[in-house]
Design a protein that fits this description.
2 strands; mainly alpha; two-stranded antiparallel ribbon
Length: about 150
Amino acid sequence: MSENKEPGVWDGFKAFLMRGNVVDLAVAVVIGAAFTNIVNAVVKGIINPLVGAIGTKNLDHYSSCLSSTCEGEQGIQILWGTVLGAALSFVITAAVVYFLMVLPMAKYLSRVEARRKAKEGAHEVIEVTELEVLKEIRDALVAQRGSGHNEQ
């Protein structure tokens, strides 16, 4: 048998599960599911009643009929109220994610990057200054050595 054993399927699966991005993805899915419940509650509890001030309280009741009669399950109905409710849920979700998560994180990351660049710039200035001082010391030592040889 060969001692050069390739990792098994189980080892590869364990390595896949232990990667950080898999755990992050799992957390994101759980948080997303919980957040969906909040957005749906906002749409049903706030948006639908606001729309209900104009017409029906439930957006699902808004529809248009494409056939001559739309009674019960007969006829062709376009349920545009359902689509409007889903679109409002999406817009609200996107706005909350952008303004409460993406925008603050982008600002934070830009501040961290600016601090890093400022620190690198200061480090380069210090290195240049140290280099200049070392050159001056070298030149002074060379000058002293040169003047000492001339006197002897």
